[in-house]
Amino acid sequence: MHIPTLREDPAEAGAPSHRLLLRAGYIRQLMAGHYSLLPLAVRVRLKVIGIIREEMNRIGAQEFLMPVMHPAEIWQRSGRFEIMGDELFRLKDRKGADFVLGMTHEEVVTMLAGELNSYRDLPQSWYQFQTKLRDEPRPKAGLMRTREFTMKDSYSFDLDAAGLDKSFDAHRTAYIRSFERIGIPAIPVEASNGAMGGSGSTEFICPSETGEDDIVHCPQCAYGANREAAVSTLPAIDDAADAALALDAPVRFDTPGVRTIEELAKGYDAPGDRQIKTLVYVLDGQLTLVLLRGDHALEEQKLIDATGAVVVRPAEPGEIVDALGAHPGSLGAVGIASLPVIADVGLQGRTGMATGANTDDVHLRGVDVTRDINVGTWADLRAVEAGEPCVRCGGPLEVIKGIEVGHIFKLGYKYTDAFAVTVAGPDGKPVKPIMGCYGIGVERAMAACIEVHHDDRGIVWPAAVAPFEAVVVVAQQDDAAVAEMGEQVYRRLQDAGVDVIIDDRQVRAGVKFSDAELVGIPFRVTIGKRGLASGNAELTDRATGETVSVPFDDIPERVRKTVAHAVSGTA
Same domain for 247 and 164? Predict the structure, then answer.
């Protein structure tokens, strides 16, 4: 079998999964974001797919297979041809027609749903395992963030919101079971729908320091949310308790050289919770003022969700000066009527505040937000921080790193509206089906599994997804009797239904042991001269390192039961 292991860690690999997949001979890079899966990885991938397929079938979903290449027209029809921007691969055929490479399949599946005729045809849940392509600007961490990958994507069609709730909950349960069986400790958390649209979504996050998602989690009540959607309880601030800060009108004061919240707080008796931070963004071409409390940070996805903006970026310094007459550090929204203003709800009703005066090196104090600022939109915009009180139980929140391994969405009517899909309702009148969509990245799930199942010797695969459940190691291949017994044990394990490989290479036993540990096969059966003399083989558990002697006649049943117990332990 082609297993090109490496003795040294690849210099380009940082994340443990990336390093070990390369070292253990699972993957090889073709170019940035594109990997060949070698035989071991193919076996793991198929087992991951098998588990997910079983759980999808268990909730009554039906398997499809849809094309990778789509006519651009259907993406234009949904509005996502523009929304997806540069991440969408676009191409023309020889006739000049426009096409895209599918990063997801909502448009295609909704067109297929056009053949549903009656409410009696609903509900429907359809899924596929298909290659997705995204022009990822920064592919990295091996299989964690790539431009070409396999996704299990599924789509539900229901008659009404109550039906969507059932489909959503069924998928949520199927995902929980799938990740448990694969061996990924995934936490369901509330999340933003982003460019998918719809009314709500749940991410499944595998806690890991190599992850790119910040997850807000309450250990007391199990509240969890991606930081993009997380909320917390803010302690109330009684502005009336400090009457000296309440002025009849804002008063200007000089602040030479002050450019930050911290500098204003330190030198001018204006703590962060009494400042108004003014950010300037361009939302779909419109210069917009974004206000938060001075000690709070903006969560940009919340701004996107609150405004529905498609193209979002911070304003350039020149744009800011042209519009407001001052540089960042001296900006404010007092008296501004020419630009839209969106403010975080943490500023509602606040008085006695300080903010920039739109003159360099000058600020205002005594600002009453309701009186002095023309806020057009109030929204939750701030990023939640560790230690803030949980909205459910009041306990301190934790912020942890994690890997997104799955995401489920309530899409609503976005796509059935765009493609005019209707069915005849119970009264004969046309009804639009309501949709959900649900995704798991297969190769990312493999990588996440390694992130939580490895040690300093290599991968420690859970038995349910390991490339092989057991390896027979022939310690002395040049000894004919040992080699023959190794072959017999290998054949008997196969006959017992164990997914087994034999290591009969002409190399030292130590090399075989090291490779078995690096590759991560859960159980090792060692056949050697001493064991042959005593009638025993050694059975070693990769996860615990525990080794026991087992009579040759007992090996097939002992290994079969050990593997079965290990697999059921992850289910």
Answer: no
Query: Cα torsion at 226, 231, 235, 238 (round to 10°)?
Result: 130
The CATH number of the domain holding residue 124 is: 3.30.930.10
Residue 144 carries which DSSP code? G
pLDDT digits (tens, 9 = 90+) for 296-316: 999 999 999 899 898 899 999
| Sign, CA torsion 474/476/477/480 | negative
Looking at the structure, do residues 50 and 111 belong to the same domain, yes or no?
Answer: yes
Structure tokens at 96: 């000049």
How confident is residue 199, by pLDDT bands cut at 50, 70 and 90? low
Residues 248 and 369 occupy one common structural domain: yes
State the residue range of the domain holding 483: 458-569
Q: Strand 98-101: give its sheet, edge to edge.
A: 69-71, 98-101, 90-92
Q: What is the pLDDT of residues 134-189, one digit of tens each?
A: 999 989 999 999 999 999 999 999 999 999 999 999 999 999 999 999 999 999 99
Name the helix (H) or strand (E) containing 293.
Answer: strand 286-293
User: How many separate helices (H) and strands (E) can be counted in the chain?
Assistant: 16, 31
Residue 218: inside a domain? no
Tell me if residue 204 falls in helix, strand or coil. strand
CB hemisphere CA count around 446 (13 angstroms): 30
Kindly give the pairing relationship between strand 124-133 and strand 62-63. Answer: parallel
* Residues 164 and 141 grouped into a single domain: yes
CA distances from 359 to 277, 326, 354, 378 (A): 15, 5, 14, 26
